[in-house]
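Private note to self, pasted from the team thread so I don't lose it. Backbone tokens:
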């Protein structure tokens, strides 16, 4: 099931997903990653976080965190546990985020994907996102999508 994040309760599982699924793909230095780790709690308060969890034990196995700025939906983080990948949870979370944002006036979306994350790049392209540029300093692709659900 997909639901809103329960602050405090879901956060340890979200942090674990960040460490296991996102950090290994990053090109950041240890110092940069440590700074970002410290900022994650305040980051989660600034946007909307949806989680996918089992109805039986309520354990989070996927999440999406996003923010809206005027007409722009910015996908900040999306992670799915390796045991839940290839089961459409990422796509479902994206659909929820895009629908949420579209009903609040967003018409376009943006996401950053680490260079080398071919799986993530393929995933977002399949959802209609296109690469608009490469950001060399952070070694990321910037992808955009016009016309949300």
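Design output:
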């Amino acid at each position: 099931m997909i639901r809103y994040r329960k602050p405090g309760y879901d956060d340890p599982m979200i942090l674990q997903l960040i460490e296991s699924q996102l950090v290994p793909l990053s090109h950041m230095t240890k110092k940069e990653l440590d700074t970002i780790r410290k900022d994650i709690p305040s980051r989660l308060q600034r946007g909307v976080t949806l989680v996918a969890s089992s109805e039986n034990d309520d354990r989070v196995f996927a999440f999406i965190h996003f923010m809206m700025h005027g007409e722009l939906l910015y996908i900040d983080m999306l992670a799915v546990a390796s045991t839940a990948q290839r089961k459409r949870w990422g796509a479902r979370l994206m659909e929820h985020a895009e629908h949420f944002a579209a009903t609040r006036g967003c018409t376009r979306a943006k996401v950053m994907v680490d260079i080398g994350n071919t799986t993530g790049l393929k995933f977002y392209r399949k959802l209609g996102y296109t690469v608009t540029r490469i950001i060399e300093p952070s070694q990321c692709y910037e992808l955009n999508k016009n016309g949300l659900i």
